[in-house]
User: What shape does this take?
Amino acid sequence: MKNILFISLATLLLGACNTSAPLDRSIRPSAAPAKENTFGEYEEFKLENGLTVYVIESSKLPTISYNLSFDIDPIYEGDKAGYTSMVGDLLEAGTKNRNKETLNKEVDFIGANMGVYSGGAYTSGLSKYNEKLMDILSDVVLNPVFPEDELAKSVKESITSLKSSSTNADAIMGDVKSAMLYGKGHPYGEFLTEATLGNIKLEDCKNYYNSYFKPNNALLTIVGDITKSEAEALVKKYFGSWAKGTVPSHNYEAPVEPTKPQVYLVHKEGAVQSNIDINNLAKIKIGDADYEAAQVFNQIFGSGFAGRLFQNLREDKEYTYGAYGGIRANKLIGNFSSSAKVRNEVTDSAIDQFLLEINRIRTENVGAEELQNAKNYLAGTFAQSLESSRTVARFAANIAKYGLDKDYYKNYLKRIELVTMEDIKRVATSYLKPGNINIVVVGEANQIGEKLKRFGELHYIDREGKEVGPPVQAVEVPKGTTVESVFESYYKALGGKDKLKSVKSMTGEYSMSMQGMNIKLVNIFEAPNKTSSSVVVEGMGEMQKKVFDGTTAKLKVQGKEVPVSANETLETKINSYFIPELFYKENGIKTELVGAKVVGGKSTYEIIATYPNGKKVTSFYDMKSGLKVKEMSKSKTPQGETESVQEFKDYKAVNGILIPHTLGGTDGGMPMNVTLEKVEMNKAIPAGTFSL
Assistant: This one.
């Protein structure tokens, strides 16, 4: 059955080789001098329906951008978490005047950009298309049709993406960190799940649109080659009839911070590194008196390679590829967070260094040069950011959203330059709270759990933030169990040896989503061990195809045939059998029952198969059901050693044989989640299928 499992997709994601001269990372580049702030002046007008408009005229380039944003309080979505994010997809799916295809063609024809999201919409392009752009923007915002099939598509894609990231440590950390910091009953602490996505109805999205997409709740920022009078005429023409209405507001109780350090550990089976995030609540938002000092603090403490965290944990201790941290402002309540990914064996040592740096910046003054370098860097990046019309529009929207002074961003760099050493220490003391922190770790609990107890009260939690006990570490192998008996139970669970040997052919069509790409996998098997596997990326066609005719393996990547090594040919031969275990002996594979482990909450037998070339494949078979639940192996590539982890789930009967319909895990560090959409057995396979 191995022929219907993962295909390595790493070749699709590798970038071009870097041929530039090596960079001497021991030499820190000097910070650029501060640049003068040239934030544009804006003119303001308001329509009778309450729509506020900011116009920032700039004739340097013949371009224009329209950014429409809504001032919407954070919304707690509860058992329908995810529905607000669907609104943008629905609004882009067509209007009463233009279907989706027509809309996309019109935008492409004039070389424009357009986007819609839950909090607004934007268009940009050449200023000679001013009116066309305004026409498109207003049509999308005012005349949506909310097609049911588009919602179903968005929900399906979100569920697929969620499954793909279900075992990804970064995704797990993002969810549980927020849930533990803010609480799952707070808008900032909830996260979507398959269940919440499945609860979303079209009416939920329509109600959201009808409640918040109101002119008296909106700001339209226009940046580019246009005058105020020209803008006013266009806005009145296209948005003047938009009816205003009452907009709901929301209030939430402030999250409760812990009275002593808390440690939350999510067990990630087999993980070789730990994801660490140390955080606490911070009551800060844009426009507060401490905001600029917090930005300078961030640059010194952990915003990049020059930050103290990076220099300590990477350059000095060599625990990680990068360590970052800082104070983040937000509308309701912000936070302080610092994070890194480190090897299992240095997890506790890394946390020691985080805490050391937190305490050091709270108790010692920063150096004068360190302070000035941070200011200069911020000045340079801020000036550069003003080259983006969307950034300018966002700044203008912030002025309205947070009630800032009209010259707030014009004077931003002046306030940055006034930040002192004492300000940095005050901010660090105010917003970094080592006595009230959460230390969240995603990693192999059996290896790191005991070491974390010294940092605070230890809680073992699951993927959704629910408290669970520590993982079971040991399982006994029943007396008399052998490799052969485990395999026999596996064959029987699948449907029996006779059934398995009766399979003459099988075709499986799979779907998956990876890095924003929709991918189709087609795998064809013909007894005894001929296979064809192809990877088709939506919008790009067939990107990879591999065939094995029983003797020779051939591989084609992006239309070009590439060599297949002797080792890869050997492994392809072994894995091309319908059930490779049935043919282990005749292929010279040695097997060993090394013990038992708990995998995914199930007691399993652990068997290591050693190929003739020395490669080891570790498989886990459920003691109760007999089915294979997981397989792990390592391979040497030009990019170094990579690990493949395959998880077999959702077994369903096809012609009396159980086939896993969901395949999860990772390949080369990339999360994979593959769904079997269609399968056919014992159909005639066309001639030439197993040749390129």
